[in-house]
Amino acid sequence: MKLAIQLYSVRDETEKDLFGTLKRVKEMGYDGCEFAGLYGKDAEEINKACCELGLVPISAHVAYQDIIPDIKKAVDTYKTLGVKYMVIPYLPENLRYGTEKYPQLLEDMKKIGEACRENGITLLYHNHDFEFEKTENGEYVLDALYNEISQDLLQTEIDTCWVNVGGENPSEYVRKYTGRAPVVHLKDFFGSKNEHMYELIGIESEKKEVKSTFEFRPLGYGVQNIQSIVDAARDAGAAWVVAEMDSPSMGLTSMECMQKSIDYMKENIKY
Prior knowledge:
- By secondary structure, the chain is of the alpha/beta class.
- It is 39% helix and 16% strand.
- It has an 8-stranded parallel β-barrel with strand order 1-2-3-4-5-6-7-10, surrounded by 7 helices.
- Helix 2 packs parallel to helix 3, helix 3 runs parallel beside helix 5 and helix 9 packs parallel to helix 10.
C-alpha cells in the first residue's frame, strides 16, 4: 500500500498556496494526495503540477450538493484532475437515512456512480459516526447504504477514527468490507464522543455543555492502534491509506501535525 495525505488536513496552507503546499507534502514523503476542493485552480494545471512533483492525485472529496446540479461536469473535472476515486465526504442531516430526501439521494448516488464508472473513476462514500445509528431492521445506517447501492456503483472510504467513535472496532470494520475498501482513512484522536466534536470540522453545535475534550491527534499520538488498522486495510485489499487530521492539536500547526504523522508511519508502521 501507499500513503497519501488528505489535503483538508492542511487547508490553511492550501488556501494560501496550493502548489507550494503540494511540493511540501511531497517533500515530507507522502506518495499521493486526496483533494478537498481545488481552490479556484484549473484541474489540468493541478494535474500537471502533481505529475511534475511525482505526487499521485488519488482521490477527491466532492460534496453531493456540488455534484448533483451537473454530474457530467463534476466527473469531467475530476477526470481531468486525474483521480481514480471521487468521494462523497459527508451528508447533511436533511439527506440522511430516514428523511424524506433519502430515497432520492440513493437514486442520485447511483447516477453519480454510473457516471464515474463510465469515466474510469470509482465512487466512494466517506463515513462519520452518525452512520453507526441503527435502522429499524437493526443494521447500521452505513451498512444499509452499501446494501442499497451495488458495489460496482459505490465502494467505501472507511474513516477509522469515526468508526471507533461510533462504537465499532476499526480493524474489524475495515475487514468487513474486504474487496470494497480501496482507500482507508487513518486518523487518530483522544477523548470521547460528545456534542461538540463536529465543531472541529466547522459544523457548529447548538448544544450548551462543558467544552469538548475531544481532539484529533497526529497518527500514533492518540488511542488508535494504527498498525492493526493498516494490517486490516492490507487484508481488505486497500491500495491506499490516507492520513487525515481534521484540526491541529498539541500546540502544533497543521503542517507540523502531518509531519509527525508521516514520521510515525515511517518509523513504526509496516504499510
